[in-house]
Amino acid sequence: MTLVVEAERDIRQRLSERLADAPWAPSALINILALDEIEIARPIIARSPVLQDHDLIRLMVQATLEHQIEVARRPRLPASVVEAILAREEPAVLTALASNDTAEISTDGLRRLVGRARDVVALRSPLARHPMLSSELAEQLYLWVGRALREALTARFHLDADVMANAVDEALRAAHRGDDAGQDGVIESEEGREEMERSLVEKLDSAGQLRPGYLLRVLREGRLPLFILALARLGKFDSAQIRRAIDSNRPELLALACSAVGIDRSVFPTILEHVRQLNGGRPGGGAEGARRAGSAFGPFTPDVAGMAFRQAVGAV
Questions:
Q1: Average pLDDT taken over every residue of the chain
Q2: Residue ranges per structural domain of the chain
């Protein structure tokens, strides 16, 4: 145990990979590796048969957000751990759980996730694809997703498009009136919200008020879609390129985009942390990826960083 604690990082990394599938590995050693930095802990959390339910729940309490996300992604996650995740209500961890098709989640648990999807945008897409989603929950989810997901839900559950459109319209009217029904329905349509945010970014840019500092501000407000639109506008990128970058396991792509619009190297770790919290732990790569991303702020101009971003994200 002393040797492992004092060992170099690459040795602990190799040990983690070797022991991740070993049923005979000492429990104390496995738990130490599970609490190590995330790149070392990831294979242990994902695969070790030695980790028991109470070990995983302890990670939910003691470990970092990245560790918690890995717990939520663990295959065949037991019901007791699922309940612990639901109880904590951390958006990024809930999103990872919603993407885990093998987790032992109850009907009530799935209903709670659908309820949270009203406020947590990142939950909507994985829930719409979840194999356990029922027609009843699909109808509820339909009220606050965008057009593409509505079409997917309609095709999968054979929903009556006219009936659902009327339900959305009624929810919108109720919300505008301030009725209780509106509190359980959608407050604004996804298409309307996206159009408003796009218009806001364009107006700020036209007025010369769209600056790099705005990106951190909207992230602190939890508005990831607005961050994507603003970063794309500032860097003259396509918003789909920014989305691919933040959904990847390469944080250096986001770093290149930020470097291209004049974000300082010292500010980027804060931006990366906020994006991961709002985007289900992505972009991945853990602490090592964050360190690697620092190279994007090298001795070159923003124009060069922009060209490098466009080339690199095209391969993702």
A1: 86
A2: 106-188, 191-313
